[in-house]
Amino acid sequence: MNEQAERVMVLWVPDWPVHAYLSEHEAERDSHEPLMLALTTQHQVVACSSAARVAGVRTGLREREARSRCPDLEVHPHDPEVDARRFAPVLAAIEQTIPGVEPLRPGLCAMRARGPARYFGSEEAAAAALIARLVEVGFPESRVGVASGRFAAEQATRAHDTDPGVESPLPGVRIVRTEHTAAFLGPLSIARATSPDFADTLTRLGIRTLGALAALPEDAVRQRFGSAGVVAHRRARGLGAAHAAEVRPRDPEIELSIDCAFEPPLDGADQLAFACSGAAEVFTRRLIEHGLVCTELGVELTDDIGLRYERTWAHPSHFTAVDVINRVRWQSATVPRDPDRGGSGIAEVRLTPIRTAHAAKHEPGLWNTAPDERVHHHLSRVQSLVGHEGVGTGELTGGRLTAERQRLVPWGTRAETRRAPRSRIRLRDGPWPGRITGALPNTIFTQEVGAELHDDAGVVVQPTNDDVLASNPSRLSVGGKLLPAAVHAWSAPWPLHERWWAGGRAGYRLQVLLEDGDAWLLRYEHGEPQESHDQASGPKPDLGTHPVPHLASSSVTDPAAQAAGRWFVEAHYA
Questions:
Q1: For the chain, N or C: smaller number of CB within 10 Å?
Q2: Is 207 exposed, middle or buried (0-12, 13-18, 19+ CB in 10 A)?
Q3: CB neighbours (10 Å) of residue 495?
């Protein structure tokens, strides 16, 4: 049984890098002048215009040689990213006519011929429809080749209508029938099917054409040249790769973003949210039509002078239309308003699904989760009234101080993961040298509460330069109130130095155990003289009505002692 490759249709737009460059710089050029253009990479021509080709410029020439052949040549560096970006709309236009397209490189793509031939009636009609579509998008010089196997179809796009085995029913269309494949490929150079080095090896052995290579037994080619030889041999015979599809269509890109433009611009957050309600419905409905839900949303606001305000919102489940509207309202409320500008507002809103998931994964399971849904519904309603930051849940995070290891995450926002950028996260697991380990305290003071640690003589105890206490602590007062229990034990002070190169916080931390079993975590910071201890910010804890005895003159109200440093309460272990 003879092996045959499937029929493949290949579309080629000649000189595509030149077309992409001209599209990128369309406003800078005069279309009436003859174009002598060449694009180079490492001073070697990789593409040139037809006019430059007539003047003698060829791909592969050195830039100096190309300029000597064409003194009027315009040379620019080649940008492959521009080629790919400019070819994307062409691929979308092709997929509207014939689906199942595999892009081979910018300007060249392949598709199976059987389906289009059955739909349009014949391979000639399918190729004609493809050519007509390319003419509509501005590429009348495009070519379509149809043959058995992708390699033969690609060679057909470059063939002349007078070549053996080639039929040209329409301008730009080249068809090679299956029975004429050997006659078409036989005279072609061996360099068409393999790398230059391997082609040079075969040429020195006397194998200069594809027909000469195809005449050799495949087993002999495999034993002598290995896998590279087998690939070239199958191409010369008009066959594709063994056990592999000739065409692997790409998944078509789906545009799921929504844009809303407003004229005149809208200034109020509620007004903007109301105007975006229809777009939010369309946004979520379009996702559902493709079997998707949005789990991470990008909102981009553009004001009337072109400034953009972007933010990415995450959701623990998936966004509904109401969730999208709320995010637009909250983000708009944070946009700075300049009263001197007058009439400033949001002129455009763009909603983009940053991350999506299959809708089936977010359907309720066998056991109903209605209570959780009701909780989320009510909290979301409260959040829509009090704002995004009004309802939050606690989360542990990283840090050296105990107050820094907790934060409130707004309800409906997914907790950050280790994969998030460092600018958006503080890793929970260190390294955090100096952090408290073991049992967590009962009370953490998020605001500064002053403390006074005294020895038996009533003198404030302070750390020395040797990282030890100057005297043994005896009594502790917090917030100006003396605690009734005396100090029973204490730890050695350990230094706390953060961002010392930028003038960050420096001081000590100390754990103190009282006779009644309570433990306190204190922090000592070097500071400047202040007017009064009562100016310490933050509410003072209720420690009872114990009398405060007369303290020595070296109390914390002494400017000299204040300059040396002050004690603060960080946490309490009951």
A1: N
A2: buried
A3: 13
